[in-house]
Amino acid sequence: MELLNKALAKKKERPVKVLQFGEGNFLRGFADYMIDIANERGYFDGDVVLVKPKEGGSLEKFHKQECQYTVSLKGIEGNKASVRNRIVTCVTDAVAAYEEYGRYSEYAKLASLRFIVSNTTEAGIVYDGSDRPEMTPPHSFPGKLTKFLYERYRYFGGAADKGLIMLPTELIDDNGIRLKECVVKLAVLWQLEDGFRAWLDEACIFCSTLVDRIVSGYPKDEEGDLWKQFGYEDHLIVAGEPFALWVIESREDISGEFPLGEAGLPVILTDCQKPYKQRKVRILNGAHTSFAPASYLAGNDYVLQSMEDRLIYEFMHDTVYDEIIPTLALPEKELKDFAEAAVVRFCNPYVKHALLSIALNSVSKWRARCLPSFLGYVEKNGKLPGHLTFSLAALMAFCTGSECSGKALIGKRGDEKYEILDEEAVLRFFAENSGKDTGEFVRLFLSGEEFFGQDLTGIDGLTDRVTAYLTEIKRLGMRGAMEKYFSV
After folding, report:
1. Given this model, what pLDDT does residue 76 score?
2. CA gap 374, 28 in Å, rounded
3. Which residues neighbour 88 within 8 Å (Cβ) at sequence distance 6 or greater?
4. Start-end of H helices in 261-331
5. Residues sharing a CB contact under 8 Å with residue 213, sequence separation 6 or more, in sequence order
6. Three-class DSSP category at 52
7. Spatial separation of the C-alpha atoms in residues 321 and 147, rounded to whole Å
8. Spatial distance between the Cα atoms of 155 and 105, rounded to a whole number of angstroms
9. Cα–Cα distance between 190 and 133 in angstroms, integer?
């Protein structure tokens, strides 16, 4: 069976308009999928180059398939099964920022380039004062972007029409604003000329965005059947759900250059994306992050299994309806309608959304997705939200480990080992402190301002409650502890 390639996909070469930091499943099944459709419908006419922004890993599969891959979307639409398979042809190259720095940096000189899309997880948009302009490349994503933009600025002599439009998709509030703040701060640190900083303001646009689609990744269990169905081999298949939403907030009208909405795609251009953002991050993503570690340690591997597990389903339901929705300012009916739709998506029988995938970078995700609801509940009710508090203990139990393998910490579910993937500081903390007395372990974690942006031990009763929950998780196991506190 032939391996998918450009000839088989009948790819049409187009000018490269998009440089994408992140070669993972989400952007390939979301942004690139939409761009590909907009190309086909005659609204965009642009190709994408993927950048692997981290050290390690390999782009071998991308190069073997000439960056062509299939997106398979399955779900329930209008009470009927829906299946959409599409070869995405808009990706024309993939380059490693570290291993191929010279080739990567050459894209800064490409006249046709107009957009930067990124998905480097919630922990990706951070200022790193150790970044330096002579690094090839700087460590952080903002550092890489600052150097890339500066090289472009110098190559084109500060030309106003060679600025770029940034479309970060990381799930943090005001992601575009935060990204620009990091870039400007680095420009000051590196003592780059005033003209560059003016070019950032006048020629570049940093949009804040909201993205929504459940992308489960490579469907390993269906691999053979799908290849037979497609008639070719594809080791880069991306599986996900049909639902999608991309809300882009911009200070300037970019509809003429990025007319995906006109192409019939679920893209909303607005001057304020906050209502969409808060609803989605707090309810859908907050639900995922609050139950995933607990559900995994309770014996489940996927979201659908979790929804079929009454204990986990009720935990998720009560977290959303009793502790998250009451902290939001939007109309209650709108919030409940959105929550009901989210549950339908969680129950999609065609999407195998791995809990370990959701648990990637759990600490920064909990801070971004759950902490605002947690603090809002405490402020409104003067007491701790039981389910969100338990989710903190479950997160700690999930991240418990002292054995390292490569860049992962090793956790245990019974006799089974699993990889804990998070920021280096998080992994170091758990490796060094997991074996300590439970109360001390909890106190040290909750006091970590680098994890939560504040010292949570000052919240009345929180340290004792998390300690009690974690003690029972260790004694009874995750399922036993949840049955004790949240029996159904």
Report:
1. 81
2. 32
3. 28, 32, 33, 36, 68, 69, 70, 71
4. 274-279, 286-297, 303-308, 310-318
5. 26, 29, 30, 240, 241, 243, 244, 245
6. strand
7. 45
8. 11
9. 7
Tokens coding 320 = 């959303």
> Among 169-173, 195-199, 297-301, whose mean pLDDT is lowest?
169-173
Q: What pLDDT was estimated at residue 123?
A: 78
What tens digit of pLDDT does each residue of 4-48 get? 999 999 999 999 999 999 999 999 999 999 999 999 999 999 999
Identify whether the C-beta of residue 248 lies closer than 8 Å to the C-beta of residue 225: no
Q: Contact 133/151 with Cβ under 8 angstroms? A: no
* Confidence grade of residue 488 (pLDDT, cut at 50, 70, 90): low
Q: Are 111 and 256 in contact (CB under 8 A)?
A: no
C-alpha span between 411 and 27 (Å, rounded):
28
If residue 47 lies in a helix (H) or strand (E), which one and from where to where? strand 47-52
C-alpha triplet 54, 119, 173: angle, nearest 5°: 125
**Residue ranges of E strands in 97-190:** 115-118, 165-168
The 8-class DSSP code of residue 266 comes to: S
Measured in degrees and rounded to the nearest 5, phi and psi for residue 165 equal -105, 120
Nearest to 451 by CA among 399, 411, 382, 385: 399
Alpha carbons 365 and 422: distance in angstroms, whole number: 10
The first and second tokens of residue 263, run together, are 């192409």
pLDDT band, residue 352 (cuts 50/70/90):
confident
Of 62, 65, 4, whose CA–CA distance to 231 is shortest? Answer: 4
Rounded distance between C-alpha atoms, residue 368 and residue 382, angstroms: 22
Rounded to 5°, the CA angle 443-449-453 comes to 130
- Going through 69-179 in order, the beta strands assigned E by DSSP cover 69-77, 80-88, 91-96, 115-118, 165-168
C-alpha span between 16 and 8 (Å, rounded): 21
